[in-house]
Amino acid sequence: MIFSCFAFACIEANANEMLSTQKMKLIPGGNFLMGSNDGPDDEKPKHAVFVKSFLMDILSVSNADFAKFLNIQGLQNSRGESFYDDQDSDARIHRHHSAWQADLAYELHPVNEVSWVGARDYCTWLNKRLPTEAEWEKAARGTDGRKYPWGNATPTAKLALFGAPYNSSAPVDAFPGGASPYGILDMAGNQWEWVSSIYQPYPYKVDDGRENLNAGPIRSTRGGGHDSNSEEISASHRGKFLSRH
Asked: What is the pLDDT of residues 203-213, one digit of tens each?
């Protein structure tokens, strides 16, 4: 299991802008069942959660996307908090001729080696924000309680990248058949995805402190990664032990 590869998607920060765009999809508000009574203990109990309507990026942030951010913002913010670990062997963005560039052939692959702070600040830079853990799961599984974004069918190589060798990845749009019920892509496998939420036990409550956006606490990661097994890429699985900040 790789402990360092994190991607993410952003959601619209302005609640008044609720029309789908070519790059974002509307996730309707309402109740859905979060968690699972059949999985690991941290998924229990399955419980009803209400989320407001929000827009979510259809695609995860790519290496090319994040390189643009690094070229403007640098590797850390004004508080000295790091955005990206370019020294890690997994990194797919490097400095070339005084500019940050995605490695050749990896431009459209999901960015990895991004800290939670980097994901948070990237979304803010775009006037967006990270999804909460509840928003992410609602976007991934809808309201019918499905196990995976595409339904309950067993994962295959046509639906997601999982069970793959070290440091594998695929383009963020490589698995249209694995889309969530709202049309969000790549929510299973490929790279673990950051959410805004602090990793805390269920039931999920938006007002219990887990949505404090100050750096420090362990954050949840969702969706599983390229080397995950079929259970770890389920829509309810939580990645506590992969979190770093």
From this structure: 999 999 999 99
Total domain count for the chain?
A: 1
> Any residues with CB less than 8 A from the CB of 51 and at least 6 apart, and which?
27, 29, 30, 32, 132, 134, 135, 138
Bridge partners of residue 115, in order along the sequence: none
Range of the domain at 242: 1-245
CATH number assigned to the domain comprising residue 106: 3.90.1580.10
Largest CA distance in the chain: 52
Distances from the Cα of 130 to the Cα of 9, 32, 44, 54, angstroms:
7, 19, 23, 11
Q: Which residue has the tokens 């692959």?
A: 109
Count how many residues are written for the chain. 245
Q: What angle do CA 92, 69, 25 make, to 5 degrees?
A: 95
Q: Is the pTM of this model over 0.85?
A: yes
Measure the CA–CA gap between 120 and 109, rounded to whole angstroms: 19
